[in-house]
Amino acid sequence: MNNLRISAKLAVAFAAMIGVSAVSSIVLFFSLQQISDAADAATRSMSLAAKIETVMAHMIDQQNSMRAFVANPAETSQAESYAETQAIVDKGLDDFAATTQVPEQKARIEVMRKAVLAWRAEVGDPIMAMARNPETVEQARELAGKPSLGSIREAKTAISDAAAELVAMRNATRDAAQTTANAALLIGGLASIAVAVAMAALLGRTISAPVNAMNALMRRLAAGDNSVEIKGAERRDEIGEMAAAVQVFKDAAIEKVRLEEEAEGQRRQAEVDRLERERLKAIEEEQDRIAISALGEALDRLAGGDLTHRINVEFAPKALKLREDFNAAAAKLRNTLQAINGSTSGVRSGSDEIALAADDLSRRTEQQAANLEETAAALDQITATVRKTAAGAQDASGLVADARKGAEESGRVVDRAVSAMGEIEESSKQIAQIIGVIDEIAFQTNLLALNAGVEAARAGDAGKGFAVVASEVRALAQRSAEAAKEIKGLISTSSEQVKQGVDLVGQTGSALQQIVKQVADIDRLVSEIAASAKEQATGLHEVNAAVNQMDQMTQQNAAMVEESTAATQSLRGEAGELAGLVGQFRVGEGDIDSNPVHAAQARLNQAMRAA
């Protein structure tokens, strides 16, 4: 224990007390758990015992209902009560079997169930049936008066006795667990008190007693008692460091006393040979005085924290070693504190630079996060626009496809129109031929009518009637010829118009074919545009997702940078406190101005002003 630091001793003491408390708490917890389990089990057993008593009471009620019905079969309510109590008994047995967790009790409840069923099959139901028959009602009354629940009572008694034993056993378990809990609480408390007392005694023996002893030694040493024995210098804790420092002061005091004694001896020596060495003695006394004064002043300056003071006066050769030892000790102590100061300043300077860099990184990270957020928003808008464009291109592709189908259908209609025009032209030619035939017939009819008129004129009065007929036939033939001529002209005009219509329809068909071809090309281009827009939308969505992920990572980096900045500020504060403690010692001229801590602080302030 003497080699452990004070913090380690305190940690061991608290760990011992916590360990004892933890062990007692664990034992107490498990004991209380056993008490709770035993109490629950006992309550469950008592509840089941009460439930089986209720079942038995309902069984007796069923028997009483049977006897009441046998006594007065006209009272149908007793028969209904018999059936109702039967259902209640069955439900109670089922609830008991479902609730109990003891296999033996489950077996006993089955025995009781069989006894109940046997009673119903052999006693209850047959007697109820006999009571409903007037011829057997007297026999039923005789049988109903006999005791018949013996086996059921025995099964119930076995269950109740077993439940009572379980309750007693669980109460015993609960009492044992309670005893264990009380013992754990008592022993744990006593052990905690004992460990606390032991740790207090141990800490008092290893910390308080050595510190008090060291204070007493330092008082005696300050009073001039150089015979004190410095104990504990071999320890590796703070007490050992204090003992080593006190040993240095003791050695210096002893050396001072030795020098004084040596000077006194020299004075006695000079007194014996005063006449011969009076001048030398005076010189030596002066040197001793100077040495003692210089050493005392140096010790006072050292006690005041001034590590820059050195003994520069000339000592006598016999005191020269003392001056060199003191200067060496002061220089070593000064170098040690300067090294600590340098390390502290390095830590402080590094923490300042880290804090400055972390602040700069935090600002850049925040700016980058803002830029990424704006980029993500812009990409969202672009993605939405491209998606809308893709949707429009898709719709345009559908419209172009519909237009293509309409153009193709129009082309087919035009083809059918051209075919119909051709058929009309052929029909017109045939009609023209038929009209020509009719014209010839009218011409021949006119000739025949003319000949008939001539012949009728030759016949005289006998041919007048025939002449009139011939005249009418001739007139009819002329009208037919004129009508045929008009129809022929109309057919010629219609044929010309049909030819023009055929040409126009053909041109329309060619134009529609060209339109269909161009619409097909447009459909292909629009489909390619829609596919390209869809691919662009997909790519922009992936880019947007990547930018969002980068935004999240950048925000996380910003949070980590803020945590690093806070940790660096904490380190900077602790380094400043350590530098303040070390700064209490003077280690050289201009130590405040040339202190690396102050220089680093100045550089940091200048950098912050520049930022």
UniProtKB/TrEMBL annotation:
Gene3D superfamilies: 6.10.340.10, Methyl-accepting chemotaxis protein (1.10.287.950)
Keywords: Chemotaxis, Coiled coil, Membrane, Transducer, Transmembrane, Transmembrane helix
Residue ranges of domain HAMP in the record: 205-258, 291-338
Stretches of the chain forming a coiled coil according to its record: 249-278
GO cellular component, one term: plasma membrane
Transmembrane segments: 183-204
Family annotation (InterPro entries): CHASE3, HAMP_dom, MCP_chemotaxis, MCPsignal_dom
Organism: Caulobacter mirabilis
GO molecular function, one term: transmembrane signaling receptor activity
Domain Methyl-accepting transducer positions: 343-572
Name of the protein in question: Chemotaxis protein
Family indicated by similarity: Belongs to the methyl-accepting chemotaxis (MCP) protein family.
GO biological process, one term: chemotaxis
Domain of life of the source: Bacteria
Keyword Transcription regulation: no
PROSITE patterns to which the protein is assigned, alphabetical: CHEMOTAXIS_TRANSDUC_2, HAMP
Keyword Coiled coil found: yes
Subcellular location(s) of the protein: Membrane
Pfam families, per database record: CHASE3, HAMP, MCPsignal
